[in-house]
Design goal:
- By secondary structure, this protein is an alpha+beta fold.
- 53% of the residues lie in helices and 9% in strands.
- Strands 1, 2, 3, 4 and 5 form a 5-stranded antiparallel beta sheet that branches.
- The longest helix is centred in the C-terminal third of the chain and has 21 residues.
- The chain is elongated and about 70 Å long.
């Protein structure tokens, strides 16, 4: 029995509900430029400007979003009908894997993303595949470095450790992070090889205070946190009393600096991870590390050469962290406009 496309489409996701990153990906992949130009007025020139304007129209959930959604449905009717016959995520996944290697990929991409059974994992898979293909065609030199960054456990790290000048570059990268008021509300402590045994003693004493019944294996593990990393840094946050720069902004600046330091480590070819734990809250540890009043230890940064590749990271979709604000009046108008 043939599927009634309008009825099927009513059960599927609308373009305006996909989230901005998926909207941009669909509009760049599944509609030709001439269709976008006909449906979305665009003051600028170039395909990227056109896609940005179409994406903004899709997010606004108005008549232009409806027109774009209708154009996608009309252009990719065959793929929509094909996927409407699939009744579970596994069969949808199989359809996508087959289509991703063929000229049918753009049509199947749209049909899959808007299918009522497509879950977050399946949408993430398709989006990742499409964006990887696009990056291969139009590489952005710096972006893959950020997209591929992940934490690497100390047990997966080894020699060589970063040299002194490389550590200096990481700190310089941290200093380039956004910093309201240029207060630099953070500092870095390096634990050299000659002081690691003393740091291990400090970690062991902290473990004994916290857990007097700690086993020999627990104490050994506490010591390894100090001895195992090829390079070990302490990241200290030190918010400063300033009327025009509230503490929360300084904490954000410190976090941005720490992120830059980790990204710089990756850019230099190293793996890195930040580990905190109970010892970061221990007053005696803070005193031994000579932290001043108002300072706290955010964590210990382990850095080294990657000897064992960590497992693939599972990241949330960008749409889970993104939303588009619009005034309440506009929301009410859109609801009325889209009512049947």
């Amino acid at each position: 029995m043939p599927i009634d496309l309008p009825t099927a489409a009513s059960r599927r996701n609308h373009l305006s509900r996909l989230g901005r990153h998926l909207q941009r990906s669909v509009l760049a992949t599944c509609l030709p430029a001439e269709t976008l130009e006909a449906l979305v007025p665009c003051a600028g020139s170039g395909r990227s400007t056109l896609i940005a304007a179409a994406s903004a129209a899709a997010a606004a959930a108005g008549p232009r979003a409806d027109a774009l959604d209708a154009a996608l449905n009309a252009r990719h009717q065959a793929a929509i009908r094909r996927l409407e016959g699939e009744s579970d995520c596994d069969s949808l996944r199989a359809c996508w894997i087959e289509a991703a290697r063929s000229p049918a990929m753009p049509a199947t991409y749209w049909a899959l993303l808007t299918h009522p059974l497509a879950d977050r994992t399946l949408r993430h898979l398709a989006f990742g595949d499409v964006e990887m293909l696009r990056q291969a065609a139009e590489p952005v030199p710096s972006l893959p470095l950020l997209l591929e960054r992940r934490s690497v456990a100390p047990r997966r790290l080894g020699a060589p450790a970063p040299a002194a000048d490389q550590i200096d570059l990481m700190v310089q990268a941290a200093l380039a992070a956004p910093d309201h008021g240029r207060l630099r509300p953070w500092r870095v402590i390096e634990f050299g090889a000659d002081c690691r045994a003393a740091l291990a003693d400090l970690f062991e004493r902290e473990k004994r205070r916290r857990d007097p019944l700690a086993s020999a294996a627990d104490l050994r593990k506490a010591r390894e946190h100090a001895l195992q990393p090829p390079c070990l840094l302490g990241f200290v946050v030190c918010a400063r009393p300033r009327k025009r720069v509230p503490e929360r902004e300084q904490l954000l600046a410190a976090g941005a600096a720490l992120g830059n330091l980790l990204n710089a480590a990756q850019a230099l070819g190293f793996g890195a991870i930040v580990l905190s734990g109970d010892r970061c809250f221990d007053p005696q540890v803070a005193a031994e590390l000579r932290l001043a009043d108002g300072e706290f230890l955010a964590g210990f940064v382990s850095i080294g050469s990657v000897l064992q590749t960590p497992p693939e990271a599972t990241r949330p979709l960008a749409q889970d962290a993104w939303s588009c604000w619009y005034p309440m009046q506009h929301a009410a108008a859109s609801s009325t406009e889209n009512a049947p």
